[in-house]
Amino acid sequence: MAIRRATAADAEAIAAIHVAAYDETYRGIAPPEVFEGLNLERRTAQWRRFFAEPQPDAAAFVIDQDGEPVGFGSNGIDRRGPSPIGWIKAVYLLKRFQGRGLGLAMMATLADDLAAKGVREVRLDVAVGNDPAEAFYRRLGAGFLSAQVDPGPIWKSPTRTYGWTDAAVLAAAAGRADRHG
Ligand SMILES: CC(C)(COP(=O)(O)OP(=O)(O)OC[C@H]1O[C@@H](n2cnc3c(N)ncnc32)[C@H](O)[C@@H]1OP(=O)(O)O)[C@@H](O)C(=O)NCCC(=O)NCCS
Fold this sequence. Notes:
By secondary structure, the protein is α+β, with helices and mostly antiparallel strands. Helices cover 40% and strands 30% of the residues. The protein has six helices and seven strands. The chain has helices spanning 11-26, 33-37, 40-52, 102-116, 131-139, 167-180, and strands at 2-5, 59-65, 68-78, 85-93, 121-127, 143-150, 157-164. It has a seven-stranded mixed beta sheet with strand order 1-2-3-4-5-7-6, with helices on both faces. α4 packs antiparallel against α6 (167-180). The radius of gyration is 15 Å and the shape is globular. It binds coenzyme A (COA).
């Protein structure tokens, strides 16, 4: 397993994982029209845009297993408030690669990257109904912050926001659990 910073050459592979893992995760949680809207064409366009028009502080990483991308993660920073807030935007692994510690390794990478950029507070949103992901974040020490409805482009999804007060502590928790798990 290797985690590396993603480049424009990864846009298609990330989009394919995004579509497949989203489907595996949210079938039965999201309404059916969501899957039509978030198809490969749309996801590919989204990821090409991500690399073509980089937002300041946004980063994406790919997990390779035997040289093939099997997951990705991304983060960003909101600098509008008095102190910057790091956001974990996505962590997606293909189902057959879940439960092997790769998610922890990606969380450690995303948190390390934010800490290196001077961020302490880290947050993420999880859709209500995605119980395995919520359990995974809670296990990493995430604290519940708020519940809301994400207006989203397609799906007005009820979400919960979780957070950590120190990116370095999250990185250590994910790294430590990975070594022992
Ligand atoms: C959520 C996700 C990123 C977790 O990554 P993963 O590689 O499957 O998880 P790991 O193998 O790293 O699990 C690490 C630890 O969390 C625990 N864990 C994993 N899934 C869990 C669950 N459903 N409930 C409780 N604990 C869980 C594992 O037991 C493991 O602990 P251990 O090392 O003590 O055994 C991954 O499963 C995934 O991509 N899911 C689909 C997409 C998704 O939901 N993304 C999040 C969107 S907000």
